[in-house]
Amino acid sequence: MPVELTHLIEAAQKATPGPWFCDNGNFDVFDAGGSSVARHAISVGADPQPENNARYIAAAHPQFILLMAAEIKDLRRKLKKAESNERKN
Fold first, then answer.
1. Is residue 28 part of a domain?
2. Where is 31: in which H helix or E strand?
3. Is 26 helix (H, G, I), strand (E, B) or coil?
4. Is residue 30 part of a domain?
């Protein structure tokens, strides 16, 4: 079953536009204008990888998600066309 992209696309369209950046000091994520888009709360016993998580969140900014979703849709169209052509032969 293919992954449904609609929910992810809608969420990306509503989010603060990227690119986003990670502040290594406190693991916050900021947009290009310096506004905070995500804060990573750190507490005792919390996730041992707050910096890795913040970097991941910053890397998965809305424009990246939308480009990735468009690429997946394009590849699905190409696969469907190739499968259709194969059945004709």
1. yes
2. strand 29-31
3. coil
4. yes
- Distant-in-sequence, close-in-space partners of 60: CB < 8 Å, separation ≥ 6: none
Supply 5's token pair.
Answer: 């992209």
Q: Each residue of 11-27: pLDDT tens digit?
A: 999 999 989 988 766 77
Report the interhelical angle of 6-14 vs 62-88 (nearest 10°): 150
Owner of token pair 């900021």? 30
Please write the tens of the pLDDT for every residue from 35-55: 888 887 665 455 657 778 788
SS3 29: strand
Answer yes or no: is 1 within a domain: no
Residue 65 lies in a domain: yes
Tally of domains within the chain:
1
Domain that holds residue 63: 6-88
> Is the Cβ–Cβ distance between 30 and 23 less than 8 Å?
yes
